[in-house]
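Lab notes, practical 5.
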Amino acid sequence: MSKKKRIPLRKCVGCQEKQEKKALVRIVRTPEGKILHDKGGKMAGRGSYICPKSSCLEKALKNKGIERALGGKIESELAEQLKETLPEKEDGTRG
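Output from the prediction step:
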């Protein structure tokens, strides 16, 4: 019998739902202290995850979930960049 491969789960800091790691967007605090959008999911540093929905990003920014998870301040430039680069909007379209 072959073993089933374990799928890593992560919790969204916006809606607090657990989902597959690949389905979420990763934000990372680098060892230098910068907070960046980790497009490839492989950057070194402390990671935080959000759903690819604008409502989850808004919740995470409002309740400071990303800042708490990463231990740093989110710049307004990064917040705007994340809003623009989110894979999905609320209506299911990309953009």
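Observations recorded by the TA: The two ends are 43 Å apart (CA to CA). Helices lie at 54-62, 65-70, 76-85.
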